[in-house]
Amino acid sequence: MSEEQNNMEAKDVIDVEQILKLLPHRYPFLLVDRVIDYKLGEYLIALKNVTFNEPHFNGHFPKHPVMPGVLIIEAMAQASGILSRLAIGELKDEDEIFYLAKVDNAKFSRPIVPGDQVLLHTSIKRKMRNMVKYECKATVDGKVVAKAELLCASK
After folding, report:
1. DSSP 8-state symbol, 58
2. Which among 14, 64, 82, 120 counts the fewest CB atoms within 10 Å?
3. 60 annotated active-site
4. pLDDT digits (tens, 9 = 90+) for 90-103
5. pLDDT digits over 7-63, tens only?
6. Is residue 25 within 8 Å of 99, Cβ to Cβ?
7. Domain 3-154 listed as CATH 3.40.1190.10
8. Which helix (H) or strand (E) holds 56?
9. Domain residue ranges in the chain
10. Smallest Cα–Cα separation from 94: which of 22, 41, 27, 19?
11. Residue pair 81/23 in contact by the 8 Å Cβ criterion
12. In 3D, which of 69, 67, 78 has the Cα closest to residue 120?
């Protein structure tokens, strides 16, 4: 394990600058603002602050802004990608990417709107060769607003 990984594990908070080293996503598609807790190889909790100036709110929906379900799934997938990348280290090769391969049992129980602070909870359910299955949920104010099982595969 590198010294930087030891430092990240010691403080248990990963800021956006470190996230940019772990994920290939960039504005406007980076959907994780901070990691607030994790245990290598087991679970991760990340934070997404939802703001009105995000580009998807212009059309989804103009008079009633709601975060699209596909972006909620993507945010959970990015949090899951960070969990897996932490064990590997920094993203040095752009070809090292985890792709979302499958979504199972997705359920949305309430809309996410501007002003919400979303906690993205992800845990590793199973590892298979170059794939990892995650159990994910998104919460706002302690209430589950979305959940899904995600399968991600590395290239």
Report:
1. G
2. 64
3. yes
4. 777 666 788 999 99
5. 444 457 999 999 999 999 999 999 999 999 999 999 999 999 999 999 999 999 989
6. no
7. no
8. none
9. 3-154
10. 22
11. yes
12. 78
- Give the global pTM: 0.90
Q: Biggest alpha carbon distance in the chain? A: 49
Q: How far apart are CA 94 and CA 74, in angstroms?
A: 19
The single residue listed with the structure tokens 């985890």 is 98
Dihedral sign (CA 35, 133, 73, 147):
negative
State the burial class of residue 74 (Cβ atoms within 10 Å of its Cβ: 0-12, 13-18, 19+).
Answer: middle
Residues facing 149 on adjacent strands: 104, 135
Cα within 13 Å of Cα(142), Cβ side: 0
* 3-class DSSP state of 24: coil
User: Are 25 and 77 in contact, with CB atoms under 8 Å apart?
Assistant: no
Residue with tokens 């990340």: 46
Sign of CA dihedral 96, 126, 20, 27: positive
Which residue in the block uniquely carries the two structure tokens 């998807």? 56
Choose, from 25, 56, 60, 121, the residue flagged as catalytic.
60
Q: Phi/psi at 46 (nearest 5 deg)?
A: -120, 165
